[in-house]
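[INFO] parsing input record for Entericidin EcnA/B family protein
[DEBUG] input buffer:
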Amino acid sequence: MKLLIVLVAFACLTSCNTTIGVGRDIKQGYNWTKSKIQGSGQSDQQYGAPVY
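[DEBUG] output buffer:
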């Protein structure tokens, strides 16, 4: 029973991080596409470690 609770908690925490990552990927893709369409040549994107 304890193992099941630990596995469920682990699955929930993993899915939260995955959801955050997918959201960031979508936002990054939107910013990249917007900069390409507008033809600015420069993007406002900052690369590096994620900030929470």
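[INFO] The chain has a mean pLDDT of 77.
[INFO] shutting down worker
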